[in-house]
Amino acid sequence: MQVEGVDRKLGAARERTAAGEPVIAVEDLSLTFDTGDGPVYALSKVNLTVNEGDFVSFIGPSGCGKTTLLRVIADLERQTSGSIKVNGLTPEQARLGRHYGYVFQAPALYPWRTIERNVMLPLEVMGFPAAERRERAARNLELVNLKGFEKKFPWQLSGGMQQRASIARALSFDPKLMLMDEPFGALDEIVRDKLNDQLLHLWRTTRKTVVFVTHSIPEAVYLSTKIVVMSPRPGRIIDIIDCDFPRDRTLDIRETPEFLEVAHRVRDGLRAGHSYDD
Ligand SMILES: Nc1ncnc2c1ncn2[C@@H]1O[C@H](COP(=O)(O)OP(=O)(O)OP(=O)(O)O)[C@@H](O)[C@H]1O
């Protein structure tokens, strides 16, 4: 009965999303962690709308609440006050309905499973038949340029390749929304540039909505249609910047005055956020 209820609501949510409802709608959302050392005000009065097809980056210094906000969207944390809807549903309903794929900071692959079997894992849990599991794993590994590595184990792949495999896993059940928590943070700049290009290509061709956490200003400006600048103590949004570059952008745009202007505005926002600490 409960599943039927969720399914009915999911159907209704899809219709509303098709009619232009935001994919994510956050209103006046705050989250305080109660710790032994007293309360930690991780998020304060956050308001945010993510529309279908957006690529939204959260940027800000360590501890400003980027991961916490992503985890609230994914129903891995619950807000203290305020509201949040994902495709018109509560985060719990969206999680149960598999509305999003989540990519963690570290690849988090099972070392005893081959790459293919890691990618197939969510499909096994969801009860997809074996032939479809294999077909989807092959398709998504090709999408992240890992064709030919299906039978390798994670330790046989570089860090960048492992992160691509975890993206393939998050894509395996074809969610329209991807939540990505600093997926390329641990990689060197050249590998990161390459993966940024591949991610942009994937976003353009699959028309997904992406919410992406990063510390890097160039990465945020290069990838995003919208940049959410955050600052700590308490974590809050201090600027939301629209990035109107063409969707088929290439790395050369990083040299253009328009790019540098947006980067400058992000940097100004980050500096202004820090001054709250003084
Ligand atoms: N489970 C928790 N219990 C207590 N405090 C927490 C918990 N999770 C996060 N925090 C605190 O909440 C604040 C926001 O943390 P969060 O991890 O969201 O920041 P962040 O911007 O993602 O940081 P980073 O860039 O370093 O990953 C920090 O002060 C952090 O210490």
Topology of this structure?
Elements: H1 2-18, E1 24-35, E2 38-50, E3 55-59, H2 66-73, E4 81-86, H3 91-96, E5 100-103, H4 115-126, H5 130-143, H6 159-171, E6 177-181, H7 189-206, E7 209-214, H8 217-223, E8 226-231, E9 236-242, H9 257-275
Parallel strand pairs: 3-7, 3-8, 5-6, 6-7
Antiparallel strand pairs: 1-2, 1-4, 8-9
Bound molecules: adenosine-5'-triphosphate (ATP).
Report the uncertain regions: 1-18
Order of helical and strand elements:
HEEEHEHEHHHEHEHEEH
End-to-end distance: 54 Å
Structural class: alpha/beta
Strand content: 15-25%
> What's the level 1 CATH class of the largest domain?
Alpha Beta
Radius of gyration: 19 Å
Number of strands: 9
Task: Name its key features.
ATP hydrolysis activity, 2 domains, three-stranded antiparallel beta sheet, 41% helix, P-loop_NTPase, 9 helices, six-stranded mixed beta sheet, disordered N terminus, 23% strand, 9 strands, single chain, binds adenosine-5'-triphosphate, Rossmann fold, alpha/beta, 278 residues
